[in-house]
Amino acid sequence: MDDGVADRASRLLQHGAELMGRDALIEAEIALRKAAGLFPVDDLRRSTCLEKLGKIRVARGKLEQAAASFRSSFIVVAANAYRAYTGSLEVRRNAASWLGEAVGLSVSLALMASNPKITASAMRQVMTWKAITAALTKVEPPRAGPLFPRLSETWSRLPADGVLLEFLRYAPHDFTAPLESAGQLPDRYACFALGGWADDRRVTLVDVGLAKEIDDCVADVREEMSGLASYHGGCVSMPVAEMRRLFEAEDDGSDGPPVTAQMQVTYSRSHQLIEHTVTIDAVSFRQLMWDLSNGTSTFPQEQLHRLYGLQASAGKTENPDPPHLPEPPSNVRGWASCALAAAVLEPLRPLVSRARRVIIAPDSELWLAPFAALPNTDGSPWLTDATLTFVNHGLEPTTDDSPAVGAGDPLVVADPAFGAPDGKRKRTVFAPLPHALEEGKIVASLLGVAVTTGLDATDMLLRNVRSPRVLHLATHAFAVRRREVASRGLPNVNHLGRFRGFELLTHSDKPWHRCGVALANAALWESTGESLPKPGDGLLLGSDIAGLSLKDTALVVLSACETGLGEVGAGDVPWSAGHAFRQAGARVVVMSLWRVPDGTTRTVIQEFYRRLAAGASPAHALQQAQRKAWSEGLHPRHWAGFVCLGVPAHTLRPFALVPSQHRHCRGVARRRRGFRGPRG
User: Fold this and answer.
1) Which of the four pLDDT bands, split at 50, 70 and 90, describes residue 672?
2) pLDDT over 70 for what percent of the chain?
3) Nearest-angstrom CA–CA distance, 202 and 344
4) Highest mean pLDDT (candidates 102-116, 395-409, 429-443)
5) Contact of 623 with 372, CB cutoff 8 Å
6) CA angle 309, 315, 319 (to 5 degrees)
7) CA 111 to each of CA 19, 115, 118, 175, 206: distance values in angstroms, whole numbers, following the listed order
8) Fewer CB within 10 Å: N-end or C-end of the chain?
9) C-alpha distance across the termini of the chain, in Å
């Protein structure tokens, strides 16, 4: 593009923007069309022209043409983002942000237009956005194939009795605002649904609700089901003059308007840093300050917890392990789970009630929601009606239909000897797991191999493993908060921050350093923590896990706590240990969303493997194991936190735990020759 053409195109773009500001829409459309034609197809300025052109066409009622403009703009941005894969972290984050803004326009138009073609085009953009974002953040490799694949590819791979739910968090655009204004509203969640049945190939789009309300509801559901507090600590801030004004306000009981002020609230929720502004009156502010400084509970705890995201003990520096909340009777629907089900499931009820297999691509905080336990209209959990499988995005089922699985023998690692701390500390974060060894023996017997335990269960073992067919880990895992949370003076999310080694991980600027699994001698590193863990120190960080050789490993089962928990943003997937195993090449990963009790974990996992040995797919085996736990009256704390992440089971050949009787016999022979138990 020579300088003269570039100059002319830039002038036309500027002139078109000026005409938009004067509401000369026809003239602005002509100028912008000319400018778009002059810019190269991969020039981001062309994307700007197309975006403005789309807004003009919406204002003129030409919705299908507007959708075409937004789609073309998105493709330009996506092509630039694709080239940013090898760029710096800042370049990649900017590219992901531009994609999110482009998607917001298309989804906003699709919700407004209710046009099947526009809705289908928006869904294609959302799936492409997620796939590119996952590659930009290094959570999965760049997708092979067309940059903007057809929706028919996804539909053709769906099971006939299945449905794909593609959730997204986006910034909606207000098309009624002046054309040159930002016109953006608070973030919202939306969901695209695509059924696999041949008689109806339409894409359904529903508005789920305000993102903040849904995020708070997810945190409340986690708290309700796990029995662990999701909100941890918090702090408030406002100008000193405003605080003085609230403290000095007279409470004379008059009917005049109350004295109020804006207060900035910062707190931690499910490992995420939350900041928002609330309006508080003088009486409530004085009581809140009293409670925060004294650790009392005079101020209504529900208002502290729900409205401000604070606990009355937030001002304390000491932070014990997250307390268990009172456990309600099993199988009783709580208000939070009912509220989330009403927002997420009810608008989709005609589709999900027809499906027996549901593929869910969550977004943002919805990655942390226990979907399987959300109640149906009759009070039973959703898992009684359908098998749930989680994927990063709707393109994932179409990326690899290879039936190949790892050729290596299954590997079962259980109850590592974490070692004793150096004596200067009375506690260790990696306490022994009483039921892990028994679980490992049961799983190993089903897989026809020996269990690796004690001092043999080292991180070096996993670093050197090559594509085992099945990998089972019964051990400790961890997920710590990012540095920004700790630097604000908020109490630690859990007890990890009190140990020296984890301070280094908390302050690391790499998200993959803030999750991982513990193996033999991990407690020795945790008690000193003079440097990041090295090979042989007993820890596998997320970055280490992502580099393991697990290509074509059919199944990884993480019988550990919080392996699905990690930092997450819009359009991205969590930086969790479970997702790190997926990046390493594992086809399916079973992971947990919270700290599941050790004893019941063994029970659920044992039933899962028995179903798997009987020929069920991983997702169906997990559903049946959870359903049995529910039918026996176990509280959701014990089973609802397990999720199955990976390519839907219908694209895999029938899952056989032991490929041949010969291999099974060899495994039994090895066990008969002698079993080495824990030595730590």
Assistant:
1) very low
2) 78
3) 19
4) 102-116
5) yes
6) 90
7) 27, 9, 9, 12, 8
8) N
9) 69
Give the separation between CA 230 and CA 239, rounded to whole angstroms. 29
Count other Cβ atoms within 10 Å, centred on residue 276: 12
d(CA 46, CA 44): 5
**pTM of the predicted structure, to 2 decimals:** 0.84
- Whole-angstrom distance, CA of residue 359 vs CA of residue 127: 13
Q: Which of 123, 149, 125 is nearest to 204 (CA)?
A: 123
Distance CA 60, CA 47 (A): 20
What interhelical angle do 661-673 and 436-447 show, nearest 10?
140
| Spatial CA neighbour of 7 closest among 35, 42, 41 | 35
Report the Cα 191 to chain-centroid distance in Å: 15
- Asked whether 570 and 169 are in contact (CB, 8 A), the reply is yes
The span from the CA of 566 to the CA of 586, in Å, is 19
C-alpha to C-alpha distance for 472 and 414, rounded to whole angstroms: 8
Query: Taking the CB of residue 485, how many other CB atoms lie within 10 A of it?
Result: 25
Tell me the pLDDT tens digit for each residue of 87-108: 776 777 778 888 888 999 999 9
Mean pLDDT along residues 50-60? 92
What are the respective helix, strand and coil percentages of the chain, to the nearest 5?
45, 15, 40
What is the residue whose two structure tokens read 């049995």?
A: 628
SS3 state of residue 357: strand
Conformation bin of residue 355: beta by default, left when phi > 0, alpha when psi is -120 to 50: beta
pLDDT at residue 649 is higher than 70: no
Helix (H, G, I), strand (E, B) or coil at 217: helix
Domains and CATH numbers, the chain: 1-149 (1.25.40), 151-229+326-368+390-395 (no CATH), 231-307 (no CATH), 400-673 (3.40.50)
Starting at the edge strand found earlier in the chain, the sheet holding 515-518 runs 477-479, 515-518, 539-541
CB contact set of 260 (below 8 Å; sequence gap of 6+): 279, 280, 281, 282
Amino acid letter, residue 33: R
Task: Of 330, 444, 340, 389, give the one whose Cα is nearest residue 677.
Answer: 444
What the block records as the tokens of 405 is 């699985």
